[in-house]
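# nightly structure sweep
# worker-07 picked up a monomer target from the shared queue
# config: single-sequence mode, recycle default, output format = structure tokens
# input follows
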Amino acid sequence: MLNALTVDVEDWFHVHAFSSEFPMSTWDSQRARVLRNTIKTLEILKEHDTLATFFVLGWVAEKHPEVVAMIQDQGHEIASHSQNHRLVYDMEREEFKRDLQQSILHIEQVTKSTVRGYRAPCFSIKPEVQWVWEVLSECGIEYDSSVFPVRHDTYGSPSAPRFAYRIEPTEGISILEIPPSTVHTMGMNIPVAGGGYLRMFPYWFIRRSIRSINAEGHPAVIYFHPWELDPDQTRVKSNLKSRFRHYTNLRSFESKLRRLLVEFRFSTLSNAFERTISRVS
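# output follows
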């Protein structure tokens, strides 16, 4: 089965866990590593003849347009990861709309192609908030991958569906929601989709989980960040929980990713969910 591989393109100082240490006003003065890390990501995917969907931060597209150009040149799908990595549930409707529009503008200035997809920073969309879906639709978004059906201290909607479904908040609006992957066991959803989960769980568990999801008749949706391929990145003096989540198993992540690319078939969200997205659009 064809699974979906997604990449959230942001730099090491953009992550929400370090937001108190690196407010947006300091970003321009940080040592950017997103270019080198994206190059490494693209090299690995090219070696394994794999396409992916890249959710690009608008700030990255604005400051480093060459990153977006390289992703596009290698045939990958490009979508929005917001402009400034702000949590959606911390914004009002017009703030969210401006943020989304800015990100789309900076991405499309490079690609000359329409942005169709969106992923909120930290999966911070609350699915019951109707205006979010209205704004996404107003801005031309056809699919979203922000509703993570898990329990977490900063995000999660554990009662949301585990697999792709349509959200139709009002007449004439239809957006395909594509949740990051989970496995259901012992009455709860276990996140296996990527990020810290992908780094911390042993490979045998990730492999078994993807096979289980495929056996249920669905593509797995996996995600990672280019900074996860950068074990030598700047070490931040943050709280213990944030450091644990961010730095654990960075040195072993590349080998785990390569094993996945050998053992499973991956492509973009649009390819893996081609029929479903076409029904929505």
